[in-house]
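A reminder before we start the practical. When you read a complex entry, don't treat the lines as separate problems. The point of joint prediction is that each chain is placed relative to the others, so the output describes one connected object in space. Small molecules and nucleic acid strands, if listed, are placed in the same frame. In the example below there are two entries. Take a minute to note the order of the lines before looking further.
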Amino acid sequence: MKKVVKLVLLAVLVAVGVWLWFFLFPSPEEIIRHRLEKLARTVSFSSNDGNLARLAGVAGVADFFSTNVEVNIEVPGRMQHSFMGRDEITQATMYVRSKVTGLIVKFPDIDVTVAPGKQTATADVTLDATVSGQPNAVVQEMKFTFQKIDGQWLIVHIETVRTLS
Amino acid sequence: LRDRQNALKLLPMTEPNPSHAAPPARKWLHLVAIGRNPKMTCLRIATLVVACFVVFNFVLLPIRVTGISMLPTYKNHSINFINRLAYLWHEPQRGDVVGIRYAGIHVMLLKRIVGLPGETVAFVHGHIFIDGRRLKEPYEKLPCDWNLPPENLSTNEFFVVGDNRSMPPEDHTFGRVERNRIVGKVLL
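Here is the predicted structure of the whole assembly.
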């Protein structure tokens, strides 16, 4: 019985060690995954948010993108937009916040692929956006391209992916 | 006297001392909750938990249908499962309702396969034509008047569409899908 207890304790210790290692030294995939989750939280807002929180949210969105970011959104039959640079992203964020009372953005699936040099990465993402007052969520597959700039993984390109062609 | 002695001897066996035994109701509850052998019960529970985890994460994916594109076959907010092993031994067939993944399997499209690889699919006045021949669709109950030019499917593509075509084609998600996006077949 003592042997069993020792083995269990050893297994728990190893598990904690592995978890601690990955917590202290996360892989690029994990960093990008966390950044995308944080981006979703930053973009989301509710009607209860105060003006200061809204302004902070708008300013925070720009931090995820590189200065020369390019965004191409094409949802057949619904919309087609292109944005260039952080300023346009900020303006678009402000426009959405002024037109919509609430928005909840989630990325339920994130599939990250890091290039061999570990300086660029792509993330295939399922976007699930719920606008306040609308019964159905907008679901769209998107592709994010990241680049490591000054030690930070920043978004340099976003495009929509056509799941059914 | 003999009868009284027998009665005294038999008493402990037929009616145990109430101070040492649990009341019948509690005993029954204990039996149902833990069983006669607690170790075996724990083992059974652990096996059941592991089996449920494996089955519902890797084999039968529970889904909740959202939207009206599969009406009247699958109603909004209905619960179902996607069988991931359905296409282990054979390829998807025409008429199968399948789950189609986006970037992952947490959100999927639910559509019916109408066109198989290598075929030509067209819509004429709401009817589907496969390689120029009209497809019989007993599952389609709602009228539609879609007209779409013929589309050739490659060797790796299927054509999927929802059962509810009463809406304009612009509002309905349908089209060609690659084989690797088909997660599995709807169970029920």
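Discuss with your neighbour: The interface with chain B takes residues 76-77, 108-111, 124-126, 128, 136-137, 139-142, 161, 163-165 of chain A (CB under 8 Å). What might explain this?
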